[in-house]
């Protein structure tokens, strides 16, 4: 049986690792985790916040995920949105999910990211 999501993989273009590191660590506040050497040779980078892991893998024919996205649960969503905006990230609020506050943003290569917090 499935017990949990281990990680979410997003694609990125070749040579984008420095921009991804800056965004996922400095803007989102995640920690970069080392890739196993055999996988590190392929490029890309991995990040963690608590038990959540996002893996960014290099894709030669890269196209950003515009609809598909990870939904990342946050605490203090208003302050977190302000953090992203203060660091130059665009925040788009959406009230279409009953019982939640949520917004969307994009990483520096255009992948869509959803941030949400249950209301109340």
Folded structure, characterized:
The protein has 120 residues and is an alpha/beta fold. The protein has one domain (8-59, 69-118): 2,3-Dihydroxybiphenyl 1,2-Dioxygenase, domain 1. 21% of the residues lie in helices and 33% in strands. The protein has helices at 17-27, 37-40, 77-86; strands at 8-12, 31-33, 45-49, 52-58, 71-73, 92-94, 100-106, 112-118. The strands form two sheets. A four-stranded mixed β-sheet has the order 1-4-3-2, covered by helices on one side. A hairpin with a 5-residue loop joins β6 (92-94) and β7. The model has no long low-confidence stretch (mean pLDDT 95).
The proportion of strand residues reads 25-35%
CATH class: Alpha Beta
Low-confidence stretches: none
Shape from CA axes?
globular
What oligomeric state best describes the polypeptide chains here? single chain
The name of the CATH architecture is Roll
Structural class: alpha/beta
Q: Which topology does CATH recognise?
A: 2,3-Dihydroxybiphenyl 1,2-Dioxygenase, domain 1
Give the neighbour order of strands across the main sheet: 1-4-3-2
Largest sheet entry: 4 strands, mixed
Helix content: 10-25%
Q: What's the gyration radius in Å?
A: 15 Å
Number of domains: 1
Give a quick rundown of the structure.
The chain has 120 residues and is of the alpha/beta class. The protein contains 3 helices and 8 strands. The protein has helices at 17-27, 37-40, 77-86; strands at 8-12, 31-33, 45-49, 52-58, 71-73, 92-94, 100-106, 112-118.
